[in-house]
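Before the break, one more example. Copy the sequence into your notebook; we will annotate it together after we see the structure.
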Amino acid sequence: MTNPSRILIYSGGHLGPWALRLIQAGDLIIGADKGALFLLQHDIIPDLALGDFDSVTPEDLLRIQRESKQFISCDPVMKDLTDTEMALNWALEQHPQEVVLCGVLGTRWDHSLANLHLLRKALLAGVSCYIADAHNRIRLMDSREPLKLHKGRHSNVSLLPLSMEVAGITLEGFQYPLHNATLTIGQSLGISNVLIEPVGVITITSGLLLVIESSDVPE
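Here is what the structure looks like once it is written out:
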């Protein structure tokens, strides 16, 4: 398989029509567990379906196995990784330019938080990655390069440290600017900023910073 420029992963959390609108020509599509069924139910054939498939019926599993271009299953008990992490590992091995995670947030906050942490794995691999749902777009950045955000439907931008401390935070193009600021876990200083310029720039000197673009109006 040639290296795709973008891979979309659909897991079994909250999904909807918004998730289908993310698909672009040339994207490689992965369905993780119940995410594969969601795709097939909306006439999208996964390039790969993988997981333990403990969230689908035996009939749905047969359909996923029959209709997906590639199918990888594993034992639901004798495994160490979540279906989403297995999908991300596979995606990173393809060396794409970008990975988009859909359906990785939901009612199970243990899974949701673990999936937020998966952004670090993509960051360390040097692959652009973000989590998307109907209201949010979530990225993780470090000090290696600035992050540019483009003004759009996500009206709020919040910053939360994923490491104990994030230092040297500088914001350009925001309503509430920061210069060489520090955030530590437990602070809410970075919540609900607003882009006032077409492009905003975030730089940091150390640490891991979650950047959450959000909108009260769903996609």
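The chain has a mean pLDDT of 93. The longest strand covers residues 165-172. Try to locate both features in your own notes.
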